Structure prediction request, 151 residues.
Amino acid sequence: MPIAAEKMKLYPGGSIKSAEWQAIRERIRARAGNRCEKCGVENHVLGGRLHSGKFLKAQPKGDNGLRLVWPNPGEEWWCGDVEPIKLRIIKIVCTVAHFDNHLTDHSDDNLRFWCQQCHLRHDARQHAESARVTRRRKAPQIDIEDWLSSA
Prediction:
């Protein structure tokens, strides 16, 4: 999810692209061993997720089973160690998350290196609240009591 401009200013150096934030990000990535600190999936790996959330790494074309084409036309991939499974292939991109959701605390104890799924699950309640506020601001509801008194 893109970071709003007013929140971007809260990052060291005023941006997630600043040298200060990049140094922090690199330190957290190294601490995590370039893997999601929650589910353990490797950063930048290709694969697919089962409905359970389990990640299966994509493998080059095998001799049997279903195939998927990604990322280049003509390049075939499949997922699964024993039984190839047809899944939508994704690239895992881990990002640094603020555990307490406060963008002003950049201490190592408050930062986590998480994949998209784990980061979104952690922030789900906050995202739902932000979406509710945005919807209400864009299309305000009519107060039923005001409406009834004007009828």
Notes: Residues 5-138 form one domain. The chain has four helices and seven strands. The beta strands are 46-49, 55-60, 68-69, 76-79, 90-91, 95-98, 111-114.
